[in-house]
Every structure is written in structure tokens, then in C-alpha cells.
Amino acid sequence: MKKITNILVVMDAASDHQSALVQAINIAEKTSANIELFLVAYNSQFVSHWNFNQAQLDALQKEYIASKLRWLETYSLEVKALDIVVNTDVVWHSDVSCAVLAKIASNGASIVIKSTKQDSALNRIFFTPGDWQLLEHCPVPLLLTKNIRDYSYRTVMAAVDPERTHDKPETLDTNILRAELTMAELFDSEAHVCHCYQPMGIELWQGMNAVGMDHSLASGDFNDYSDAIKYHHQIVFDELLSQYTFEEESTHLVAGSPENELPEIVKNHDVDLLVMGMGNNGKFIGNTIERILDNVECDILSIRC
């Protein structure tokens, strides 16, 4: 993870509490980074209302943007009072993710921070379509903050895949671990790392054995196969971590699918921030990202290859 010098904060005009900004201030105070407050503004009534001609629509849009800039300035003053360099920008766009991606391309952001939404009726956090688009396409680290407890990361965990399944780039796990250690150092956090692997189920193994198919890593009974698979994954996991100094109790090799196991690991170890990787195909280490993110109650730092 490159040095954090410029933090792009995606503001939410529909919320009274800007959790992304609070976390950005935390990071800026630890890194001396600049902050840019960025708001994507849009009002469909200004576009489709038949009573207005184009000149009137342009004037209304200009005033609407100006009002949002004034709103941003109230937050800007608070940030400046902390001796943090801050800029503000409002753009007119109907698609938040497209506007954010265009902004990243023009301002050289080191990291993007955005808050997620909470459904008060269901009492759970959910990701908007724009969040998913950013996860898939954001070229810099993307921090999605859920604001579950507070803004201090006491426990940070990296989710890695040393097998490099689904054509995952070779350097992605290294980038994930570096990002995790950067955040752990900034927040004086406990650093964990996990690797979930999914062995063949006994029914499939028995079926392969019945038709004489090769199990590759083991022959004999199913327990021999399971032990051999675990040993193989332990070897590649240890090899990945050999250049780091993780405590043994902070490394977790777990048999099972990531979408089922990761939420449990996060819960059991009180993880505040989960660092994960996105491949070029927009997939999280070859697995079902939706099921993982919908069930982890912590902030997410997404790292692109």
C-alpha cells in the first residue's frame, strides 16, 4: 500500500453523520495526508420537469450545486480547525460510482473512504449498487466504513489466497498484507491473517473413488485425503507469511468456503477491519463477495491487484 497523502472522502448529503469523514480525519492525523470532500449531486426533477426551459434548468442546477458546496464548507471548517489541509468539490452526476472513478483519475487519490448504508427496519448494513461498482473498479484502496462500534481499529485481519486460484495475480496477497500492516501500524492494532480453503466433500470424494478418478493429492481413505489437503495449504500459507512476523495465534488456516467461514472468523476475533483483494475480474479471491460482505460486521478495505 502506497503512502497515504491524499484522502478522497465520498460525502453523503442524505446523512447527518459523516462516518467516512470521521475515519478520514483519524487517518489524516496519523499520516499528515490532505483530505478532499467530494459530493455527487443530482436531482431528477431539474432534468425532467416540463415547466422549465434549458436556461432555467441550468440556473437551477448551478444554484443546487452552490448550495451543496456551502453544505460541504460547514464540514471543511471543522477539518481546517484540526490543521488538516482540506478541499471541497461537488459534481453533477446521476451515477455516484462513475463520478467517483472520474474524480480518482483526476485528483490522484491515495485512498477512497465511503460510508455504507444502514437499513433501520432490518437493523443491518447493506451495500448500494454504487458500492459494488466501486469495489469492482476502484483502482486505489477503497475503505467502506460501517460505523458499527467506533473509529479505532483494534483488530485488523487480512484475507489471503496463496493458492492464487481463478488467475489471481501473484502480487495481490502481498499488497493485501502490506495494506493490513500499514493500517495496523497507524491504529496500533492487532494484526491477523486468514486463509480459507474448501476441500472436496466426502460424497464427491467417494464418487471420484468409485469411478477410478485420481485424487491428485492423496489416495486411500477420506481422512488421508483431508490431511494431505490441509498439509498442502499449510505449506503455501506458511510460505506466503515467511517474510512477515505474525504471531502463530494470529494466523488462521480454516477448512471451508470463505463465504461461510470468514464472517465467523471476523465475529470470533472481534475484527474491526477486514482487508481483502479484488482481482482484475472484480471477484474477491475467486469467491462470492456478496455473501461475505453482507455478513461481516466490520469495515472493509478493498485492495485491487
Explain what this protein looks like in three dimensions.
The protein is α/β, with parallel strands linked by helices. It has two domains: 1-146, 3-Layer(aba) Sandwich (Rossmann fold), CATH 3.40.50.12370; 148-305, HUPs (Rossmann fold, 3-Layer(aba) Sandwich). Helices cover 41% and strands 21% of the residues. The chain contains ten helices and twelve strands. The chain has helices spanning 19-31, 45-48, 54-80, 96-107, 129-137, 172-187, 202-210, 222-241, 258-268, 289-293; strands at 6-10, 34-41, 86-92, 111-115, 117-119, 124-126, 142-145, 155-159, 190-197, 251-255, 273-278, 299-304. A ten-stranded mixed sheet has the order 3-2-1-4-7-12-11-8-9-10, sandwiched between helices. Strand 1 (6-10), helix 1 (19-31) and strand 2 (34-41) form a beta-alpha-beta unit. Mean pLDDT is 84; it is low at 119-123.
Brief sketch in words of this structure:
The chain is α/β, with parallel strands linked by helices. It has ten helices and twelve strands.
